[in-house]
Each structure stands twice: as structure tokens, then as C-alpha cells.
Amino acid sequence: MHQIIDDTLGINLLHANQEDADHNRAHFDAWGITCLNLMSSPGAGKTALLEKTLASLTDDLSIAVIEGDMTTELDADRLRQYGVPVIAINTGRACHLDARMVAGGIHTLSHEHTPQDLDMVIVENVGNLVCPAEFEVGEHAKVALLSVTEGEDKPLKYPVMFREADVLLITKIDLAPYLDVDLARIEANVRQINPHVTVIPVSAKSGEGLEDWFDWVRSAVKSPELTSA
């Protein structure tokens, strides 16, 4: 038997979250910061991608990270090794970051650092292929990751994440030769959901495709309005 969900409650929650997200976005805009919301299922490679991004771009860009995890600061500690501000948020049982949680991270960031000196804040959301896409946090763009190990059908089975994404990174492509997976089919399935999404196949291990990702990040900093067009 299916349980009936109160749609009104869900709408009210999303409306309240959107107000908080708009407030966060106003802070980012006032400080001249571009904010990216990095989303994926657990194990798709968000933190590994961030490590490569910070190692390659922090000579040119001033980047801070708001790191979301249900428990621990393991990923936050990995990123702190790159000498950037990292604000850790533990969500407990919550399966995503919402705008109010990120507002707390922004508050901490503004007290411990000078936000006007930053070019970009990257929010690494909790690993989940459903909830993070529904709760905006004030970002200028949503970045979704899908690893080749997850299968070609995930964009069709979990459409909200891919519909909302401004850019999709197909990750761990170095493993593709060892799997029964078709990168072209993954992209075709994504484009059924979101015809205009930018798709960038990458491997944090081999480095393939990373320069295309870095170029996209640089363009987002220069023209953040293009990421949400």
C-alpha cells in the first residue's frame, strides 16, 4: 500500500529553503564569489575531483570549500592539505545540505576569512543521487557527477539530478575499458533529460578530460551568469 505524501508540506519546505538560498546567493554576489554545488551519489569521485581542481587552480583562483558529510571530517581533512579554507558541515541523518546549513558555513567562512578575497566557493554536497538536487543552497551552477561504474541507466532512473545540472562530469572513465558500459549511451540518456547540459568525461586518476573541466571552472568565475543561463 502506498503512503500518501503531503505535497503542501513539501512545497512549503522548498519555498522556505529557496528564501534562504536567495539570501546566500545575495552574499556571494555582494562578495564577487561564484558558487558551485557539487552533487553525486556516494563514491562517484567528488572529493578526488576537488583535490585535482585545487591542486591545479589555486595558483590562479582563490577557492574555498564548504564540505558536507553525514559524519566525520575525513573528506574535509583531505582538502585542507591544499591550503584552502574548508568549512565542514556534518548533517547527521540528513541526506543533503540545505540552504540554512550552507548559511552557517558562510557565516563561519566570513568570520574566519575575508570572503571578498575569494573567487569561488565550492559546496561538496552529501553523497546522494536524489535529495541534493531539490534543495538549492545559493549556487550559481549545479555540477553533477556520474561514474561509469554506476551504469548507463541512472539518468533515466534518477532524473531530477540530471535535469537540474548545468554540467555533468562522467567520472572514472579510465575504468570504462574494463566495464560493460557505453559512454555515448550515458550521454544520450542524460540528454533525454537535459538536452542543453554540458557533458565532460573525466578521470581523476589518469587526468583525461580534467583540462576541459578546469576551463569550465575558469569560465564560470569570469562569467557566472553563463552557468545558470
TrEMBL record:
GO terms for biological process: protein maturation. The keyword Zinc applies. It comes from the Bacteria. Residues 38-200 form the CobW/HypB/UreG nucleotide-binding domain. InterPro entries: CobW/HypB/UreG_nucleotide-bd (IPR003495), Hyd_mat_HypB (IPR004392), P-loop_NTPase (IPR027417). CDD domains: HypB (cd05390). SUPFAM superfamilies: P-loop containing nucleoside triphosphate hydrolases. Belongs to the SIMIBI class G3E GTPase family. HypB/HupM subfamily. This is Hydrogenase accessory protein HypB.
